[in-house]
Design brief:
3 helices, 3 strands
Length: 109
Amino acid sequence: PTEFPTAFLINSLFQLQATLKKTSKNPKVSCENCHKNSATGYCKQCTQFSCPECLETHNKWKAFSTHEIINVQDVAVNTSKLLPLSEDKNTKCNDHNEPIKVYCETCQE
């Protein structure tokens, strides 16, 4: 069987749809990190809902300092805030630490 290339756009749309379902059906979303508390924020880069305690830990890490956290109430009111950035300047190549410009399916680079 021939394997199809990963459709990143379609995958991100499925993920976005799942997130919208969570906020539209129940404004009280559980923290996807600790699963103990209600989430108060959503990280666009991590694509996770988090409670205040987990957000505090998240925000302490230098690697997450550029992440955009959205208030859960804002997500429920304005779902366009969940849309991925058209040009995410934080997406960097793991090998070269430079912004990703092009990806070749043939070369896998």
